[in-house]
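Sanity check

After download, print the first record. It should look like this:
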Amino acid sequence: MKAEPTFLGYALLGLLEQNPCSGYDLRKVFALTPMMAFSDSPGAIYPALRRLEHGGWIRGWVENRAGLRRRKVFRPTPAGTEALKSWLGRPISRDDVIRGLDGLMLRFAFLDLVLGKESAVQFLKQLNKELRSHVPTLREFLRTRANDMPLSGRLALESGILGYEAQLEWTNQALARYRRAGKD
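Expected structure tokens:
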């Protein structure tokens, strides 16, 4: 059984699902867009592409361009597209909310294109539900343990709670935008 793609591998699959690209093109995406949280280093991108190609998730071909350097362009294989769809369609767990909001937002970024708007709406509803459940737990922990915590610890927890509340508000706004867009 082959190992599933890494987090970076899924990011690459999502980008390649949108548009076949070379490694250099992908490096530019990571360097020049909000996806800069990923390294644009050749030492990260090219080995990840080789692992995806070796695993059968992507296929590359050399593109000859008149007067320009040859480049290898990649696109997902049917297996790569299915792996991406499976990853995007995973249910959201409490653990995802606690440890993986960045991963959830990466998944969400590709949902419309790969699985459609209804899947994006369902994703937002699941995320909203998990956040609505998690925030009161954090608030209760703060209420019952605040006096036992150093000020810096309380402030750090309050910052985390505010971040989750902002994410919850964002899900409400995003759902409203999908509802409005559906009426157009």
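If your output differs, re-run the checksum step. Summary of this record's structure: The chain has a mean pLDDT of 93.
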